[in-house]
Amino acid sequence: NAGVTQTPKFRVLKTGQSMTLLCAQDMNHEYMYWYRQDPGMGLRLIHYSVGEGTTAKGEVPDGYNVSRLKKQNFLLGLESAAPSQTSVYFCASSTGGNTEAFFGQGTRLTVV
Amino acid sequence: GDSVTQMEGPVTLSEEAFLTINCTYTATGYPSLFWYVQYPGEGLQLLLKATKADDKGSNKGFEATYRKETTSFHLEKGSVQVSDSAVYFCALSDRGGGNKLTFGTGTQLKVEL
Fold first, then answer.
1. Using an 8 Å Cβ cutoff, are B13 and B19 in contact?
2. B51–A98: do the CB atoms touch at under 8 Å?
3. Residue B19 has pLDDT above 80, yes or no
4. CB–CB of B109/B87 below 8 Å?
5. What is the pLDDT of residues A29-59, one digit of tens each?
6. Dihedrals φ, ψ of B82, to 5°?
7. Is the separation of the CB atoms in B88 and B106 below 8 Å?
8. pLDDT in tens, B67-101
9. Is A43 within 8 Å of chain B by CB?
10. Is A105 exposed, middle or buried (0-12, 13-18, 19+ CB in 10 A)?
11. Which residue in A43, A97, A99 is closest to B103 by CB distance?
């Protein structure tokens, strides 16, 4: 049972380049999330989705876009990467309600 | 908005010592509360949760009680092991649209022999 899988695990970008992070879950969860983790700041929500075809902004959405074309996939895009986007990115999914969220292993992104 | 405050780390303990990591929250309504653990190089895993006031969550010797009157959810363990070394995150869920989690900043625990 794979759970939540993130691709890639590591990436180095130059300022201004674009990239897409892929999150895939095999648990048939309705809700999916993208968080970024920075030292001393915990995890902050970037965007989330409550179902296929829907997306919504979280706490720190600027500079990111997302898409949820299929229920099992949630894509996070950076159109023009900036050094401030250097971070570890985590995808998560849940069934909603009071249930736990399941997290992927993370993507470490460095923007130089 | 919702927020979670937890004690700053790092916390260094000897094996078999008692652990307390403090967590307090601010929220509208009645959130669910969670403790997640992150081992080095890994994602977050649920450690325990509580969904209403006075509920006690427990797992692997860790416990936390949902205290509505003090808006707290402190994590405790009676006897820590080296294998408990990790970063611990307190979080709340808004129960509303999106079931979004709000996290504290995390507390790093290091347990030494």
1. yes
2. yes
3. yes
4. yes
5. 999 999 999 988 889 999 999 999 999 999 9
6. -55, -35
7. yes
8. 999 999 999 999 999 999 999 999 999 777 678 89
9. yes
10. middle
11. A43
pLDDT at residue A1, as a whole number: 64
Identify the residue among A100, A102, A105 best suited for mutation to test binding to B, counting B beta carbons within 10 A and taking the highest: A100
Tell me whether strands B11-14 and B86-93 are parallel, antiparallel or unpaired. Answer: unpaired
* Residues in A touching B36 (Cβ below 8 Å): 103
Query: Residue A100: its chain B contacts at CB < 8 A?
Result: 34, 46, 49
**Percent of the residues in chain A that have a pLDDT greater than 90, as a whole number:** 89
What count of CB pairs under 8 Å joins A to B? Answer: 57
Contact status of B40 with chain A (Cβ, < 8 Å): no
Give me the mean pLDDT over the B26-53 stretch.
Answer: 92
- State the pairing for strand pair B75-77/B19-21: antiparallel
